[in-house]
Amino acid sequence: MNSAQIEIQLIASLVAIACAIPGTFLVLRKMAMISDAISHSILPGIVIGFFITHDLNSPLLILLAALTGIITVVLVEYIQKTGLVKEDTAIGLVFPALFSIGVILIAKNANDVHLDVDAVLLGELAFAPFDRLIISGTDFGPKSLWIISSILIITVVLLITFFKELKVSTFDKGLAASLGFSPAIMHYGLMSVSSVTTVGAFDAVGAILVVALMIAPAATAYLLTTDLKKMLLMAIGFGVLSAISGYWFAHWLDASIAGSITTMLGLIFLLVYLFAPSKGVIAVMYREKQQRTEVSLLTFLLHLKNHNEERERHVNHLQEHINWQKVRAKSVLDLALKNNMIEIDNNLVSLTKKGDAFTSKAIDYIITNEDAQIEDMKDDFFLFRG
Amino acid sequence: MLGSFAVLRKQSLLGDAISHAALPGIAIAFLITEAKDSNTLLLGALVSGLIGTFWIRGIITKTHLKSDTALGLILSLFFGFGMLLLTFIQKQPNANQAGLDKYLFGQAATLVESDVWMMAIVTAVCVFVLLLFWKEFKILLFDADYTKTLGFNTRFIDILITSFIVLAIVLGLQTVGVVLMSAMLLAPAAAARQWTNSLAKMVFLAALFGAFSGVFGTAISASQNNLSTGPVIVLVASVFVVFSFVFSPSRGLLFKQIRFIKNRRDLELHKTLAFMFHIAETHENISHPHSVKILNNFQGYTRGTLQKLVKKDYVTLDGNMWSLTEEGFKTASNLYNQQENDE
Known about the structure:
The structure holds 2 protein chains of 2 kinds. By secondary structure, chain A is mainly alpha-helical.
C-alpha cells in the first residue's frame, strides 16, 4: 500500500462519515429524495462559480453551489406550498430544470475547460491525490482531503452543539416549536449542511455516490436500531466499511472506485435487508409464519372446546374437519402438546386445564374485543415462542 | 402520457429511480451479448428497471423504511453498480464498447430510423392498452380499496401500469438520458393537471404538452450550436409548467391572487358598511349625518372604501359628514342578518 492508496481510502472514509451524519437525519425526516435533488441541482452553481474563479477547488465555488442547493430546497417548498402539486412532484420538477440549465451552460461556454458533466456526476476518486495543496512550496496532502475534513469538522461541531434540538425537531416538530426552537432554522440548517457536504464531496466521489453515501448507510442502520445515537454510529461504520472495501474491490477489478463503493453499500444493505434480526425480510416472514401457526392453534383449541363428542375430537377427524394439510395439523398438534394445552388419549384429543383456561380467555377477548385483555394474551403467546 | 398516472399516484420520483436503475441492465446486456444492438440493451434496461421497481415495493411493504428512502436507495445503488460495470466494460478489450455512455445523457441526434419505428410501435401499444384498461386504471388510481372489492385483480393492473411506465422511461432514455427522464415524465403531467380535473382530458393534454416541448426543444437546440437536445426539451417543458402554474384559470397562482385580493376588498367594504350600520342604528333617522372622524378608529375604513360605498349609493357624503342611504341601510341590515343566519 503506497501513500496515494492510503490517501484515497482516507478521503473516501472521510466523505462517508461526512455524508452519513446529515444522511441519517434526512432519512428520518423522510426527505431522502431532497439529497438527490440537491446533488443534481448544484450543477449550475458549480458552473457559474467555475466561470468566476476558474478553479474547481475554490471556496467561492462551494459557497455558490451550496447556495443553489438551498435555492432548490426553497423552490421545492414554494411549489409545494401552492398546493398545486405534491412534494415529490415538486422535487421532480425543480431539479431536472436546474440541472438542464447547468448542462446547457457547460455546453455553451465551457467546451475547452476541465469541467464536464461526467466528472460532476460520477467523480473520479483515483485522481484526487494528484491535486495537491501546496502552500509556499510545502506539500500538505491532497486538496480534497482538506476540503472534506474541514466540512466534516464543521458538521461534527454543529451536530454536537445542536444534537438535542435536531433530535426533538426531527421526531416531534410541534414539540420543538413549542419549546422555542424554530423548526425552520433547523430545517434550513440541515439543508445547508447537506448542500455543503454534497458540494464538498462531489468533486471527489461524484454526485450519485454522494446520494448513495447519504441514504444507504442511514437506511441500513435504521433497519438495525431505533436509537438515534446508535443509528448515527452504525451509519458512519457502514459508510467507512464500504468505502474501504469498495476501494479494494475497485482495485481488484480495475474499475471505477465510486461505482464499487456504491456496489458495496448495496451489498451491505441487501444483507441487512434480508437478515436483520427484527426488521429483515426473513425475520418478518418467519414472524408471519409463527403468527399463522398461533392463529391455527387458537382455532384448533376453540374447536376442541366447542365439541364434546368423541367423533369430533378424533385426531383424524380434526384433520378433515378444519381442512388442514397433514403437516400443518401435526405441527399445530405438537405445539399444543408441548405447551400442555391438550392431551391425547387413544387418538382422542382433549383440553387440559391450562388449555381450557387459555381458550376461555381467548373467547373472552374475541367477544369483548377489549384492549386490556390482549395485553395478557400477548404474554401468553410468548410461551409458544419459547 | 403515462406520467399522468405517476403524478396522480404520488409516485413521481419513481421515474427518476427507474431511469437510474436501468443502467446496470444496459451494462449487463452488453456484457452478455458483447454487441451494441439497441433492442437487447433496451431489454436489459427494462428488466433491471422492473427489478428496481419491485425491490422498491418490497422495501416499502416489508420494512419500516419510507418510500423516499427506498427510492433514493435503489436509485443510487443501481446507478453506482451500473457505473462500476461501465468502467469495467471500458477496460475490456472490445471495440464495440464506445457509445454506451450515450444512454447516460441521451442524444436525440444519434437516433436511427429503426429506433423511431420502435418508439412509434411502443407508443401505439401503450395507447391501445390504455384504452383497453381505461376503466380499471382510473378506478385503481382514485380508489384502490373499492377496486379490490369490485373483484378486479389490483395486483395485475398495478403491475401493468408500472411495467408500462418503465417501458416508456427506458425508451425515453435514448432521447433525453437518465437524469432528465424524470422531468419528461412529470413536467407535462404536472402542467396538464393545472388545467383540468378530468383524467381523460389530463392524459390528452399531457401528451400534447409533451409533444410540443419535444418539438420546440428540438427546434431550439437545432437552431444553435452546442445545445444538447435533452436539456432544452426539459427546459421547454419546465416553461410549460411554470406557465400553467401561473395562468391556469381555476388553480393558477395569478387568478388565485386576484381572487384573494378581491375577497379582501369585499370584506373591508362590508366591514365598513356594517360598522356604519351599527352607528346609524342608534339614531331614529337612518340618514342622520355623522362625522367622518369617528370612522378613523375603525380598521376596515379607508378613504377608498368610503368612496366606493358612495359610488354604490349606499352612503352619501356631505363635506366631512356621512350618512347612510335607504339602500345602504337595507343592504347592511341584510348583511347582518346573513351573518346571523350563517351562525
